[in-house]
């Protein structure tokens, strides 16, 4: 085993390590050009050493025949097949310094050569050689070119298989078995995907303690499918399983099954599962399984498509007639909707785990994991950074921390501060700042008014996320941007919020029309986003009173194209016209609202533009100062047409959190972990299997959390979320209703347990 060292500097030059020299030598020996040059050199040496014409001086045919006519030739040899004439001159006679001559003659001149030799005056000795090649030589003449072609083909196939003399093993599996020497990843390195970790920890626990599950008749899932957007940590979870499982772990990509040769993919699937069965129990991880597991029947090759045959073999190996247990298949994909239904059914992928974009808590954990070991300054607020990165995946957050470290190193800093983190977020969102770009003063003013229009329109809307930052610094393909950051993670959006987003998007265009009396091309992306939102409101979310709660249009793309190649219109031309009209009405209403906001607060717009030109970037605190007198405008209600379905005047119920905040109490409640609470918790555990008694409703309708400072072993139902001093309802006799007492286990039950 070679030990690699860092290059050492001696005598002003860097000497490479011996292992690197060996690697370069092996790489040189694998070069086919070297072997071709060696063969040509050997052929040259062979022709020089074994040339039978050595010692003969080549001359012209006429000169050789003249020597014969002059009687100066003692011996002559005619080589019929080679059509050569060898002459040995008489003693003491030379021609051009040699007494041995050789010349070539055409086949038609053979008779003339014999005549000249026969009529020579000194009657030289004439010998005729008729050479015949052996059968072996004749066979070699045909076999050598064929062998060279075969060697060239095998070399090409070997390179196509990745080298390593695997040309004859293209039907073997390319799966890599993880060894103990590889870097180990554990579940402690995974953050922001707690539910997925819990599901995978159960599989690890089953492999390590199968008896506990088998006693209950439970079977381990044969397959686990991890699906979610790119960068959410699916492959990282698989590496964590490999580091935690303690069983053989095979890793392979879905594209490794696909090959240009027919039947290779199915052969590799069989070989992979044969290796796994020999090492069962084990885990197989297939990354990007959609490369081989796409919906059948939609490919270009019909039923004999190579990819479909590979999928058929995978289905048989996972849950076929001769399937055996002990093998767990973990797969990852970004597109579960295009996978074949037979692959997703129970018995193959029994468990499908979504790995989504992390929430606020998950982002905090991910940032702490990736910032571990990095020097952070006092103003580096990771919690604030997590709030500003809504929608970021785990890979995006890791890139933010890495970009901040690179920026700090570029500036010769020693700690990562808040400014570096802020800049790294902007780099991830829009790319690096184009500081060298030179723009005119007029274009800078237009950009400032455009972004100020966005910010002012958004600030005046009641149902939109607060504006966090406005900048006119060019990044990527944008000349500036206005960033609004939600205060909390949201999965739902109301119609008012979507209309407010339309107003936000059209604020820049309205500012251009108001100030410069004509629009520019800078609002092209704003118009695209606004049109997309408005059309989705009408065709997907049923937010148009005229068209009703109907979905118009269905995506019916082919699975092999990703199910997104086409969108079929399942409505008439009249409905299409109405859809266009409704979309235009929404955009026009939002455009008018944004214009009115800017007209009302024109002086605020000018103040914001002036500061943007001076500072180029403004944050939330500065925006709060500028927008101090901007009031929230009322909601746009012209689209709130319910017809005969009148909304109720009864307000919605209040959640326990809302009630607690009205009382001035913290929510969620702070549970104090003390040693005195532990015996009570342990005492209540035996009653967990008992049937729950009927609980009385609390006056405020809350249900759920033990309030601090109140006893937890009280009789009757627990007073979850109740106000101070509240007691459970009692029966007329004055005794608590449904008094709870722990049930004492019977002796025979203890024996059975």
Radius of gyration from CA coordinates: 43 Å
Mean pLDDT: 77
- Beta-strand residue percentage: 5-15%
CATH class of the domain at 455-552 and 571-665: Mainly Alpha
Q: Which of globular, elongated, flat, extended, rod-shaped describes the shape?
A: elongated
The CATH superfamily name of the domain at 455-552 and 571-665 is Peptidase M41
Q: Structural class of the secondary elements? A: alpha/beta
* CATH topology descriptor of the domain at 455-552 and 571-665: Methane Monooxygenase Hydroxylase, Chain G, domain 1
Walk across the major sheet and give the strand order.
8-10-11-12-9-13
Distance between the termini: 57 Å
**CATH architecture descriptor name of the domain at 455-552 and 571-665:** Up-down Bundle
Largest sheet: 6 strands, mixed
- How many DSSP helices? 25
Secondary structure tally: strands: 18
Residue windows where pLDDT falls under 50 for at least 5 positions: 1-17, 557-566, 673-753
Helix content bin: 40-55%
Describe this structure in words.
Its cofactor is Zn(2+). One of its GO terms (molecular function) is metalloendopeptidase activity. It is found in: Cell membrane; Membrane. Keywords: ATP-binding, Cell cycle, Cell division, Cell membrane, Hydrolase, Membrane, Metal-binding, Metalloprotease, Nucleotide-binding, Protease, Transmembrane, Transmembrane helix, Zinc. Its EC number is 3.4.24.-. The protein is α/β, with parallel strands linked by helices and 753 residues long. Among the domains are: 105 residues, Signal recognition particle alu RNA binding heterodimer, srp9/1 (2-Layer Sandwich), CATH 3.30.720.210; 166 residues, Rossmann fold, CATH 3.40.50.300; 57 residues, Helicase, Ruva Protein, domain 3 (Orthogonal Bundle); 193 residues, Up-down Bundle (Methane Monooxygenase Hydroxylase, Chain G, domain 1). 42% of the residues lie in helices and 10% in strands. It contains 25 helices and 18 strands. The chain has a six-stranded mixed β-sheet with strand order 8-10-11-12-9-13. A five-stranded mixed β-sheet has the order 3-6-5-4-7, with helices on one face. A three-stranded antiparallel β-sheet has the order 15-14-18. Strand 10, helix 9 and strand 11 form a beta-alpha-beta unit. Helix 6 packs parallel to helix 8 and helix 20 crosses helix 21.
